[in-house]
Amino acid sequence: MAGRIRQSDIEEVKARTNIADIIGDYVSLKPGGVGSLKGLCPFHDERSPSFNVRPGVGRYHCFGCGEGGDVYEFLVKLDHVSFTEAVERLAARIGFELHYEEGGGGPRESSGNRARILAANTAAEEFFAGMLGMPEADPGRRFLGERGFDAIAAQRFGVGYAPKSWDELTNHLRGKGFTPEELLAAGLVSQRDRGVYDRFRGRLVWPIRDVTGQTIGFGARRLLEDDNGPKYLNTPETPVYKKTQVLYGLDLAKRDIARDDQVVVVEGYTDVMACHLAGITTAVATCGTAFGVDHIQTIRRVMGDDSSSGSVIFTFDPDAAGQKAAARAFGEERRFSAQTYVAVGPDGLDPCDLRLAKGDDAVRRMIDGKKPMFEFMIRQVVERYDLDSVEGRTAALRAGAPIVATIRDPASQNGYARELARLSGAELQDALRAVRSAQRSGRGEQQSDQRAGMAAVRESAPAEPIVVADTAPADPTQRTERESLMVLLQLPGEVGGERAARALQVPFANPTHAVIRDAMASQLATLGQPGWVDRVQAEVPTAYAPTVNALAVGALHAGSDPGRYARSVLDGLIDRDLLREKAVLTARLARTDPQDAEHRRSLQIALASIDSERMRLRSD
Fold first, then answer.
1. Could you give the CA distance from residue 510 to residue 504 in angstroms, rounded to a whole number?
2. How many CB atoms are located within 10 Å of the residue 534 CB?
3. 34: left (phi over 0), alpha (psi -120 to 50) or beta
4. pLDDT tens, 239-260?
5. Is the Cα dihedral 416, 376, 286, 301 positive or negative?
6. Measured between alpha carbons, how far is 107 from 104 in angstroms, rounded to an integer?
């Protein structure tokens, strides 16, 4: 069992890691001010970005939900790994060799360890890829070839082959030092009375990767006639693989999704391959489960989905399963800020079959020919009825009205009401009345849901308030205090120790600000050194730690000269204190007996000293 990682190594790994690169694997980050980046929070669902990252400080903070911390805390909270695992992952990423104390000799190797599961998956991926070139894998190569994929395409997507043997993968991985317990935890084997056996046998295998590119599971396609298992078999739920949160191809598509503000959601692994090879490099697919809320949150984070300018395009098969998928997607449409569309191939062909039949251009035309989700759903509903009869047209109108009623934008709603009237053969006024009626019915349900939601919020509220920094206070005194603390946390190297020491002598009106000021003063000797924010945060009571983090990440209006800005902020704080002190001394001088020359002289000297210090501030 390994010991504790050496503290100096922990600090070195953090110092050499760009927090924006790590968080950028999960969230689309955009400039949010000088030295700051913003995106949609990965810890809660939101429409406008309140998640801030400040690479220069090595911190993040969400001003919506209050989550914040350093790069280690981000991985611990989001990926549910231990602190040690977070350090080990980042060390491996930058090629840093960690040292372990107290008899340590390397990373822990328990069966449920995330790092060991990921290592086993990586080794399995390499094994499957190598097997694809073996004679036994001819059915797999033939399957790919019949769908227009050559060896280069297979390599690009990591496609491999699982041999028919019951234990070939198991023996291979055990030879590499993995235990049966670790392989079981990774979902690579199944359990039986006499031990474990390979889960995937005689199948074509696709590696499923998370947004960072780590292999977390596999999807396997049946090839052999004597295989009585399901057509597609996926990795079961494991500590690293949660099928409701995973999108196949996201590791390849994420950068183009963020750049193009578009994502294409298809239904299978081969559809993703076909789209990417045809130039639609924003395509992803679910992995053996329906498209759901977790998938939406993942897509929104990667897109930076905070406006209506983006596009989410779904492709659905024309069969019954495809129609159900369309209905489910429509039910979640409101969760997107982006516009939602549906793309349907000619003759109902999916992207893979369309590419095979008509080439790459046809796939691109299919996506370019997308229709708005609302239009698609209205047509789907209306076309179920006999529009040659009055009864059928009336039923179609009633069925389509609830769809139009869900449209938030009034202008768009009126436009789709007109489309519903046209498709169903109804009068526009009848369509508008039907939509309003559907709205009234839906509003009662919505209010009930809202009441239930508010009750849930009240139940989950913390018993003790958490002190966090949000927007700048309205009071100018507290606003100056807050900005000064932010400067000292974020730009300590720009202000100098003497100016910082003077600023930290200023009495603060806000009690929370005063606590943090005192913590800074106690750590003043280490101002600007690596770990400065960590030391300040460790110095304050636990309840104040989120505020320190928020101040270390909040946006500063530094402009093109951060040093000048930082000095001016602290000088403003000091000058405000000097003016306050001058007012006190001036009032005291006015009350002093004119005959008390000595006291008056001391007050005048103090006032002159204040004026002199104020002049020095202005001349700096």
1. 14
2. 18
3. beta
4. 889 888 899 999 999 989 988 8
5. negative
6. 8
Tell me whether residue 363 is exposed, middle or buried, using C-beta atoms within 10 angstroms of its C-beta: 0 to 12, 13 to 18, 19 or more. buried
Residues of the chain with CATH 3.40.1360.10: 245-369
**Residue of 258, 255, 292, 130 whose CA lies nearest to 205:** 130
- Amino acid of residue 552: A
Helix, strand, or coil (residue 133): coil
d(CA 386, CA 403): 19
In this structure, of 317-326, 446-455, 567-576, the range with the lowest mean pLDDT score is 446-455
- Sign for the CA dihedral angle at 90, 93, 97, 100 comes to positive
Task: Give Rg (Cα) of the chain.
Answer: 31
What type of residue sits at position 399? A
- pTM, whole model, 2 decimals? 0.67
- C-alpha to C-alpha distances, 236 to 104, 220, 533, nearest whole angstrom: 33, 12, 41
CATH of domain 245-369: 3.40.1360.10
Report the 3 state secondary structure along 528-558. CCCCHHHHHHHHCCHHHHHHHHHHHHCCCCC
- Separation CA 553–CA 62 (nearest Å): 9
Q: pLDDT tens digit string along 98-127?
A: 888 765 545 554 434 778 899 999 999 999
| E-assigned strand segments in 12-54 | 30-31, 37-39, 51-54
In the block, residue with structure tokens 């990252």: 53
Task: Name the token pair of 521.
Answer: 């003063």
pLDDT (tens digit per residue) in 335-391: 787 888 999 888 889 999 999 999 999 999 999 999 988 888 888 888 888 888 888
CATH 1.25.40 fits 476-619, yes or no: no
* Structure tokens given for 459: 């139940």
Choose among 409, 419, 418, 413: nearest CA to 438.
Answer: 413
By percentage, how much of the chain surpasses pLDDT 70?
90
CATH for 7-94 is 3.90.580.10
> Which string of DSSP letters, residue by residue, matches 207-237?
EEE-TTS-EEEEEEEE--TT--S-SEEE---
pLDDT, one tens digit per residue, over 426-471 is 899 999 999 998 888 765 444 444 343 333 333 333 333 344 445 5
Q: Where are the beta strands (DSSP E) in 112-261?
A: 160-162, 189-192, 195-198, 203-209, 215-222, 232-234, 247-248
Burial string for 241-276 (b: 16+ CB within 10 Å, else e) reads bbbebbbbbbbbbbebbbeebbbbbbbbbbbbbbbb
CATH fold group of domain 114-241: DNA primase DNAg catalytic core, N-terminal domain (3.90.980)
- How would you label 418-431 residue by residue, b for 16+ Cβ within 10 Å and e otherwise? ebbbebbebeeebb
